[in-house]
Structure formats: C-alpha cells, structure tokens
Amino acid sequence: MYSKILPKVQKFVIQNKGQQVDAEDIFQKALLQIAVRYRREPFQIKSSFEAYVFTACKNLWRRELNKNKIRVTDDAILELHHEERDMALATFEQERWELFTEKLEAISENCKKILKLFFGKVSYERIVKVMGYSSETVARQRVFKCKTKLTQAITSDHRYNSLKEL
C-alpha cells in the first residue's frame, strides 16, 4: 500500500499547498478512518482499494485546507477540534461521496457521460461537440435532466436522510 498509494497522495498534497509530512499524516488518517469505519459497520468497496484510499485522502486534505483557510482569515477565537470529531466528519463525507458515486454509476451511460463532463467543468460549447448536440440549449436541457435523475436516485436511497446533514 505504502509504495503504491502513498506516492500518489504525496503528489496530490504537494500540488495542493502541502508538504510531504502532510501527505504522510493524511495517509495515516485515511487508513485509520477506513479501519474504524469498517469495524463500526462492515462495508464493501465498489472501486479499487487504491482508488478508495486515494479518494479518502483527497477528502481529508481538502477538509484540512478548508480548516486552515478559516483559521487564517478569521480573527475570532475558534473552537479547537478534537481528532474524533474530525474523523467522524471525514467518515461522513466519505459515505456521502460513496452514495453519490454509486448513484452516478447506476444512471444511463449517456447521462453519466454528460454529468462527468459537466462536473469536470467542461463548457457547454464543448459538451455540444463531444455529445453531438445541435445547440448549447439542448446541452443545458440534457444536463438539467440528468442532474434531476441523479438527484432523484440519491434522495430516494434509504441512506440519504442520515447523510443529508451533519
């Protein structure tokens, strides 16, 4: 794991305002988070384990960046976060991400392709060319319909209410 996944995590963290030691900490936290979550409630990983760990690391690093951003820009006294609370929040975010990706994979191939382009911040002009639509209006309508299908799939899942808010 360390030789295969950690270098990718290090590259991501370093490219996103971090250092090697940050990447190592994030990697350890992600592994701990996955182990704790599995002990609490066994789950099945639908992607590769490598992709799962990397996604967990990315989510943890983004949370860390946001936490530091708040500290830097806010002069008010901030409540100290406990490690357990951070782990719970990271687990919560990971479960949300899993629900989202599971439902994204379950919709039609056409919708999946459109939404991946849209979420990848591809312009509507480019979506028209890639998908062979006649206009940007058609592309916008298709994106809207596919987002609606995805939203309905997510909100109709039994896990949605428990993951909706913290």
In words, what does this structure look like?
This protein is mainly alpha-helical and 166 residues long. It is built from 8 helices and no strands. The relative contact order is 0.09. Residues 70-78 have low confidence and may be disordered.
Morphology: globular
Q: Kindly state the mean pLDDT as a whole number?
A: 83
Roughly how many Å is the radius of gyration? Answer: 19 Å
Category from helices, strands and their pairing? mainly alpha
* Terminus-to-terminus distance: 31 Å
Q: Helical amount among residues, as a percent range?
A: over 70%
Tally of strands: 0
Give the uncertain stretches in residue-range form. 70-78
Number of helices: 8
What does the main sheet amount to? none
β-strand amount: under 5%
Order of helices and strands: HHHHHHHH
Annotate the secondary structure layout.
Layout: H1 6-15, H2 20-40, H3 49-73, H4 83-106, H5 109-119, H6 124-131, H7 136-155, H8 160-164
